[in-house]
Amino acid sequence: xxxxxxxxxMVDLVTYVDQMPKWGETLEAPSFEIGCGGKGANQAIAAAxxxxxxxxxxxVGDDLFADNTxxxxxxxxxxxxxxxxxxxxSSGVAPIFVDKNAQNQILIIxxxxxxxxxxxxxxxxxxxxxxxxxxxxxxxxxETVYYTIDFxxxxxxPVILNPAPAHPDLDLEYACKCDFFMPNETELEIxxxxxxxxxxxxxxxxxxxxxxxxKNLIVTLGSRGALWLSQEKRVHIxxxxxxxxxxxxxxxxxxxxxxHYFVQTGDIQIALEQASLFAAQSVIGKGTQxxxxxxxxxxxxxxxxxx
Length: 307
Ligand code: RIB
Hints:
This protein has helices spanning 39-49, 66-75, 118-128, 142-154, 172-176, 185-192, 199-210, 250-265, 268-282, 295-306, and strands at 2-6, 10-16, 31-37, 53-60, 79-85, 93-98, 104-106, 133-136, 159-161, 180-181, 216-220, 226-230, 234-237. The protein is α/β, with parallel strands linked by helices. The chain has a six-stranded parallel beta sheet with strand order 5-4-1-8-9-10, with helices on both faces. The chain has a four-stranded mixed beta sheet with strand order 3-2-6-7. Helix 4 (142-154) links the parallel strand 8 and strand 9 (159-161). The longest helix has 16 residues, at 250-265. 47% of the residues are buried. Keywords: ATP-binding, Carbohydrate metabolism, Cytoplasm, Kinase, Magnesium, Metal-binding, Nucleotide-binding, Potassium, Transferase.
């Protein structure tokens, strides 16, 4: 059973801040960490850490970060044969700022991720056809995302689209061709133009989006859990209360874990419950991929919260 992630990789430059400087001001921040990130890579590593067979289709630059990113996929058993270098280009990088409440602000410089093109899907097509799930985000060109969705539909492979970061030009007809459309509440707000402060408002915005013809809409809500809406169902997955220190990459942890359990069980409810727990565990660690537990650590965490 294989999962393919077709998407981004970035180098995360994470600064922990007491407060952000004003324009023109210099402020000291307490600490800094560098790690492998990118929404696509994070989702791939999360699923791989749980034991899924994962393949990555992605682009790195030809700088000092590239080999480390390729080696990082190998370290976690992710098939990196379709991670290619782009000559004369930088790798994707993401300066991230995390505050004392574990909230994050992220800038992305896409670099080589801009060069993941439909031809790369063609080149990987033989291997992609062996997969049981394709997972997409929006840190690579939209034309590649659309092309992959059509490929998945043609080959009867279920597909997840995580519309992150939100893209004003996203064609919702393509969202409707996906089995799962998985925004967070900020992306839901941008996609609908509706407020998403309260759970009630989120439900209203989600209903509006679902009515465009989506199959399964899953809205990740951070410390408020997740919402699953389909044409038949309305389900709220409750949050797991933890003392969060860094929420960056928690949405990716959720999607990677959901992918793993969905492919394992075919059961959306089970996959969502596991994903919610896995994302909760990820926010008690620092960084993105570095905060994702192994299967063994995840099992221990689940035992610890039920005791
Ligand atoms: O979702 C978190 C990710 O967003 C980070 O790893 C960063 O690289 C950006 O892609």
